[in-house]
Design a protein that fits this description.
Chain lengths: 248, 159
């Protein structure tokens, strides 16, 4: 029997081959047949989850509540020390120096990355902005969010902080950061579905020990991670509660 | 338990009042007119047990409240209650969350040093295995427009 593994579509393009290498490593060490299916968009991935096609997922925190509460997923691990943070930036030439300078009708560029958009919109609230009074400018990736700002197609951009930091220095020189989140407790997590849960403890332990495995360390490096760190049920429940409060 | 506020902790000129808090607690509070701005990009997070006693606080909570973690954990959440906040707001909060629903509102919180800070607060019940185990409260930076509305509204809600 083969199981289906998928990765949150906001994975960084540099690490796509890393996920295939990780899947090969995982199959070898568990003896489980696992097919890796990458989706381009959150919508198509959610349709697959709703259709119960997914057994293992490196999930965006925004989807964690649905995975745990509706689909019976449980957490395994997260990337050690990793947290999702967002930031709000404007063009360097913009007269805006603070979120409170913004006004309704502001054109906001963002991607479909749901947790980053949520954190970003919260950071726009002090400027009296919300989903009802902004003009959305949806972009396929964060480089395009930056380009919208530089071309003047958008007034502010919402970035995954890590993606912003990874932009070329030439682009960053032309942008200005207004605010950067410091939330620390929102993170992606590898989660396991009901059909594989009898192997949960074994797989979790395998992943935690992965950094000391002969080849495991290199596989982790190909994902951009140093190590996996255990996520227990209560930590996941706490993050879901936190996301719920932010979604309100 | 919750101790009266101490004059030696207060920064600046202060007023004194005795508050009747949830659970039949009485507390003498000392408060100033000094506002601490909400820090950009941060969330203040705490959890309580079902009775409203604090079980966890994050670093932003500690920094903004001015209390040590040890002073906060085990104390009722009303340790932050500012005398300018009408009791009706907290009655609405408790009525809402005990129904199992999410509460959201703008709150003026009292610091240990007598100063204050405004937040947009969201409180949700924590359900584990179908059972209520406590509440999570997350505070974020509020819109100044909304705060100004509350500054006008809240004094009208006192009996």
């Amino acid at each position: 029997m083969s199981y289906m593994f998928t990765v949150s579509p906001d994975f960084t393009p540099d690490h796509i081959s890393g996920w295939y290498i990780f899947n090969t490593w995982l199959q070898k060490h568990t003896g489980i047949g696992i097919h890796l299916e990458m989706y381009d968009h959150f919508l198509s991935q959610r349709e697959a989850i709703q259709a119960d096609k997914i057994d293992l997922i490196y999930a965006n925190p925004f989807d964690a509540a649905m995975l745990v509460r509706e689909k019976g997923f449980l957490p395994l691990v997260k990337a050690q020390g990793a947290a999702d943070e967002a930031l709000i930036a404007v063009s360097g030439e913009s007269q805006t120096n603070d979120v409170t300078d913004l006004t309704p009708g502001t054109r906001v560029a963002y991607t479909d990355d749901p947790d980053v958009r949520l954190m970003g919109m919260i950071m726009l609230e002090p400027g009296d902005l919300d989903a009802t009074n902004i003009v959305p400018v949806v972009a396929d990736n964060y480089v395009l969010v930056a380009k919208h700002l530089l071309k003047g197609d958008a007034d502010v951009g919402i970035f995954l902080a890590e993606a912003y930091d990874g932009l070329s220095s030439m682009i960053k020189k032309q942008l200005k950061v207004l605010v950067r989140s410091q939330i620390s407790v929102i993170h992606h997590a590898l989660m396991i579905g009901p059909k594989l849960q009898d192997r949960r403890d074994e797989i979790q332990q395998l992943l935690i020990n992965m950094e000391s495995d002969e080849k495991g360390g290199g596989v982790l490096k190909s994902l951009g991670f140093e190590a996996w760190q255990r996520v227990d049920d209560e930590e996941m429940e706490f993050m879901i509660d936190l996301m719920d409060t932010l979604n309100t | 338990m919750i101790a009266d506020m101490s004059a030696e902790d207060i920064v600046g000129d202060y007023q004194e009042v005795t508050l009747q808090l949830y659970g039949g607690i009485t507390r003498k509070v000392l408060y100033t007119q000094i506002e601490t701005p909400y820090p950009d990009g941060k969330l203040i997070v705490s959890t309580t047990n079902p009775e409203g006693v604090i079980t966890h606080v994050n670093q932003s909570f500690i920094e903004m409240s001015g209390y040590d973690e040890a002073e906060l954990v085990g104390a009722p959440h009303s340790i932050l209650r500012h005398p300018d906040m009408p009791a009706a707001a907290f009655k609405d909060l408790w009525d809402t969350i005990t129904r199992g629903e999410t509460w959201q509102g703008y709150v003026k919180n009292l610091r240990k040093d007598g100063g204050y800070y405004w937040v947009k607060a969201t409180v949700i019940p924590n359900i584990r295995g179908g059972k209520l185990v406590g509440y999570t409260s997350v505070r974020r930076k509020p819109s100044r427009t909304k705060v100004d509305e509350c500054i006008n509204l809240y004094p009208t809600l006192f009996n």
